[in-house]
Design brief:
- Belongs to the binding-protein-dependent transport system permease family.
- The chain has 223 residues and is mainly α.
- It has one domain: MetI-like fold, CATH 1.10.3720.10.
- 83% of the residues lie in helices and 0% in strands.
- The protein has helices at 2-47, 52-67, 70-80, 90-116, 119-127, 132-162, 174-185, 189-222.
- Helix 1 packs across helix 8.
- The chain is flat and about 75 Å long.
């Protein structure tokens, strides 16, 4: 019982420090999502392009990012690029790595959502005189957004957890903040437990937002 109280007290003592680092974690996740979404959309369109070169380049990008660990990608960008003459600060390196990783996964979500729209709807739009861009903007994308929403939300939740990896390049986000507390107190259980609970609360809140948006989109689809 005494040991449990010590762990609980160490978690409570670490909580203010961890909460101060939480906006950094959220900032990285949101930045990667906001930057990765348009990039992922472009990659998805490239994979659907009739030009073989675009399909090939985008396919290799997606395959490489999805086939290698995010931690390795962070190391390549932050520690590897300086050997080529490009030095990035930890924040820029972390955001770029998370953005590229998110873009690859988002592109597959977007591509699958676009392909899920029946081809007949595109043909009907063409017969009505709509251009390809108008068909995409007015017919395909609104429906694809509803299809992709759960996966997009899951990607954001995953990004919140993936931000812990930028701690290896000295970014003081949630996990790194816990490690710094542990270095002072030599008590690992409490700070790590507090950090895990914060990640859990953030993910749970995002899931609630996701469900609310899904219900709203569902009502819009049946209206």
């Amino acid at each position: 019982m005494e040991q449990f109280q010590l762990v609980l007290q160490s978690a409570l003592d670490a909580l203010p420090t961890l909460l101060r680092a939480t906006p950094t974690t959220l900032g990285f996740a949101l930045a990667a999502m906001l930057l990765g979404l348009p990039l992922g959309f472009l990659v998805a369109l490239s994979r659907l392009s009739r030009f073989a070169a675009l399909r090939g380049i985008s396919s290799v990008f997606v395959s490489f990012i999805r086939g290698t660990p995010l931690l390795v990608q962070i190391f390549v960008i932050y520690y590897g690029l300086p050997s080529l003459g490009l030095t990035l600060n930890p924040v820029a390196g972390g955001v770029i790595a998370l953005t590229l990783n998110a873009a690859a996964y988002l592109s597959e979500t977007i591509r699958a959502a676009i392909l899920s729209i029946p081809k007949g709807q595109r043909e009907a739009a063409t017969s009505l005189g709509l251009s390809g861009s108008q068909t995409m903007r007015l017919i395909v994308l609104p429906q694809a957004a509803r299809v992709a929403l759960p996966s997009l939300s899951n990607t954001l939740i995953g990004l919140v957890k993936d931000t812990s990896l930028v701690s290896v390049i000295t970014v003081v986000e949630l996990l790194r903040s816990a490690q710094l507390v542990i270095a002072r107190t030599f008590e690992p259980f409490g700070p790590y437990l507090a950090a895990a609970l914060i990640y859990w609360v953030i993910s749970s809140l995002l899931e609630l937002v996701q469900r609310a948006l899904e219900r709203r989109f569902a009502r819009g689809a049946t209206a």
